[in-house]
Write a structure and sequence with these properties.
The complex is a heterodimer of chains A (262) and B (402). Chain A contains 8 helices and 13 strands. Chain A has 262 residues and is an alpha/beta fold. In chain A, helix 2 crosses helix 5 and helix 3 packs across helix 4. Chain B is an alpha+beta fold and 402 residues long. In chain B, strand 1 and strand 2 form a beta hairpin. In chain B, helix 7 runs parallel beside helix 9, helix 9 packs antiparallel against helix 10 and helix 9 packs across helix 11. Chain B is globular. Chain B starts with 24 loop residues before the first helix and ends in a 6-residue tail after the last helix. Classes of the chains: A alpha/beta (262), B alpha+beta (402). At the A-B interface, helix 2 and helix 5 of A face helix 1 of B.
Chain lengths: 262, 402
């Protein structure tokens, strides 16, 4: 069984984000690059499946990033993934979700897979569209927002989170899932894992290796960023006083209902 | 660090000299991993553990999973990491609490190291894998109630009796003593022909051995999230293979202490870093006289002095770590680091306390806890006075403590 985990390298989530007005892209220089925190859950899910399946199951990390991203990929290897594929090419710069999914799918097909595990979204662009697009390009069932997953032979059973609860679904392999935080906290890399990661392979891949039919990068982008704006400042919260009595309690209940918390 | 437009970025208040750049990617990953663990598992609860005077034993398997026990030893289930990686782990652990770092130091650098360096193959195979995986806890008994800085005067004896040894005496101030599955105990053996006193030898004493008991030391105001005990030996009969065969004399325990002291060179700076970061944040947000107290010159001077010593201390620690990895460190070098790190760390914590005012004395903030912990760190593993005299001897060639 070969499990592929897609990961993205993103600017440190705690750092202030700046946008370059000319390119309308996130400024990535001068900010530390880290593993997309949502992808750490994907790694955890894959490693849990590997732990259960035992011998013969491998986890390969596939990422599209500059060469300098190698050290961040090592963290995934230190956590327990077996090897990695690093797709790097200047021609990929400016790829939108379509181009990213298209190129990643080609890289994943090339390395082979039974199951692809993704995070639900990245902390930089936060489109949340990649898993669906990737499943489409791979031509396999795509189960998104999975909170629990089990493999029984060549069948995958999963629970998909919805706004109100969860759906129990299953599909045949090969397949793709995107997992939520509920899958379990990502494990820490162990010291032995860190020391051992040095010996694991990070295979380089370029666009030439993929021989894509359609252009990717900014040339091939199907979307265009028209305008950018700072998010609006957070509005002041509404205060409910004890003196509001039953009316206040009703306001709190209505608020929680509106947020679908109760 | 240069940004895209060629401008050198302003120094980071939390790493002013960009010491990060001096670490390898692996070292940074070790550092980041232990830091996340401490942030997730230790910092949220440590105030309570300290308050309750409880060592969180439930963390032992988690720390073992990280691979931190005996991480700088090779084989026997140990990770074989570098001295620098070990130091970084100590720093991050102690940024959480000196008591937690002490647990890891004693387990790895004192108990496991003693077995690793001086034990037989059977002893290593019996204990090291279990200790690395946290299934067995170790402690290290050298200090006695009446013999601290002067261990040569120890009264604990191991007399030959047939093929066995019989241990009598006691050890004091032993970290992990009450929870240890095995104690590495240093005792004086029978005098050989022509000698007034016998050599100091190391013994492995498993918990439950008849005549061996421990009493925990209560009412501590320092290292409260750590077990400190007295070990008592009353006619404890040990087989001949309980002795650590490959060392004789105080050289043995002193070599172990040098290992552990090296961890303190880094660790104490972790406590200082937490206090500095807390004070910096507090100074920027605490308003008095209509402005943040960080706007006052007196506060700024305090913060700057804290930062200077913290960065200098970390440079020394890293330099010593590189020397250790090159096999070029001496006990005197370690004394340099231990003396400087702990002294400055304690000064930084005390200075941080003055910035936080009354808030600095509660367990809601980490300051007083670190400050009190460092009072122990200042004197254990060689008091600052003894380290000063070791350095004094290194400079003058005259031993002032003899």
């Amino acid at each position: 069984m070969k499990i592929v985990v897609t990961v993205k390298l993103v600017p440190d989530t705690n750092a202030d984000k700046r946008i370059d007005p000319a390119s309308k892209r996130l400024v990535r220089t001068g900010v530390e690059t880290v593993l997309n925190p949502f992808d750490e859950y994907a790694i955890e899910a894959a490693l849990q499946l590997k732990d259960k399946a035992g011998e013969g199951t491998t986890v390969t990390v596939v990422t599209m990033a500059p060469e300098s991203g190698k050290e961040v990929v090592r963290k995934a290897l230190a956590m327990g993934c077996d090897d990695a594929v690093l797709l790097s090419d200047d021609g990929l710069a400016g790829s939108d979700v379509w181009g990213t999914a298209y190129a990643l799918a080609a890289a994943i097909k090339k390395s082979g897979f039974d199951l692809v595990v993704c995070g639900t979204q990245s902390t930089d662009a936060i489109t949340g569209e990649l898993p669906g697009a990737l499943a489409e390009f791979l031509g396999v069932p795509g189960l998104t927002y999975v909170r629990k997953v089990e493999l029984n032979g060549t069948t995958l059973a999963a629970e998909r989170e919805t706004d109100n609860g969860y759906l129990k679904v299953s599909c045949p392999l090969p397949a793709l899932i995107s997992v939520t935080k509920s899958i379990g906290e990502a494990r820490y890399p162990s010291l032995k894992g860190i020391m051992g990661a040095k010996k694991k392979t990070i295979a380089p891949l370029t666009l030439a290796d993929l021989a894509l039919d359609a252009p990717v990068g900014s040339v091939g982008a199907k979307t265009e960023v028209l305008a950018l704006a700072q998010p609006p400042a957070r509005e002041k919260g509404k205060v409910v006083h004890v003196a509001d009595g039953a009316e206040g309690a009703r306001a709190i209940v209505d608020f929680l209902k509106e947020k679908k918390l109760i | 660090m240069k940004t895209s437009n060629g401008v050198v970025a302003a120094p980071n208040p939390l790493d002013f000299l960009n010491l990060d750049a001096l670490l390898s990617p692996d070292e940074r990953l070790v550092r980041d991993t232990v830091r996340s663990f401490v942030n997730d598992r230790i910092k949220p609860n440590i105030g309570t553990w300290f308050d309750e005077g409880r060592f969180p034993r439930e963390l032992i398997p988690e720390i073992a999973d990280l691979g931190l026990f005996g991480m700088h030893l090779e084989g026997y289930g140990c990770a074989g990491a570098s001295a620098v990686a070990y130091g970084l782990a100590c720093l991050e652990l102690e940024a959480g609490d000196s008591g937690i770092r002490s647990f890891v130091s004693v387990q790895g650098s004192l108990a496991m190291y003693a077995i690793y360096a001086f034990g037989s193959e059977e002893q290593k195979n019996e204990w090291l894998p279990r200790m690395a995986s946290g299934k067995a806890v170790g402690c290290f008994g050298l200090t006695e109630w009446d013999f601290g800085s002067d261990p040569a005067g120890m009264r604990t004896t191991a007399r030959r009796s047939g093929g066995d040894y019989v241990l009598n005496g006691g050890k004091a101030w032993i970290t992990n003593g009450g929870i240890a599955d095995v104690a590495v105990v240093w005792a004086r053996t029978d005098p050989e022909d022509g000698h007034r006193s016998g050599a100091v030898r190391g013994f492995l004493v498993p918990r439950g051995t008849k005549g061996f008991r421990t009493n925990d030391i209560e009412r501590k105001i320092s290292l409260r999230a750590s077990v400190t005990s007295e070990l008592v030996f009353e006619d404890v009969r040990l087989p001949a293979d309980a002795v650590l065969p490959n060392v004789s004399g105080l050289r043995g325990p002193l070599a172990c202490l040098s290992e552990a002291r090296y961890g303190i060179v880094w660790g104490s700076l972790g406590a200082a870093r937490t206090c500095y970061e807390t004070a910096l944040e507090y100074a920027k947000t605490r308003i008095q006289f209509d402005k943040p107290i960080g706007a006052f010159q007196l506060t700024q001077e305090k913060l700057v002095n804290m930062m200077l010593e913290l960065q200098k201390g970390q440079l020394v620690a890293l330099h010593l770590g590189r020397m250790k990895d090159d096999g070029k460190i001496t006990p005197q070098h370690v004394s340099f680091g231990k003396l400087n790190s702990v002294r400055e760390a304690l000064a930084i914590c005390r200075e941080a306390r003055t910035i936080l005012g009354a808030s600095g004395i509660t367990l809601e903030y980490p300051i007083i806890r670190h400050m009190n912990n460092l009072e122990s760190v200042l004197t254990y593993e060689g008091t600052s006075e003894i380290h000063t005299l070791i350095l004094g001897e290194a400079l003058t060639g005259i031993a002032a403590y003899k």
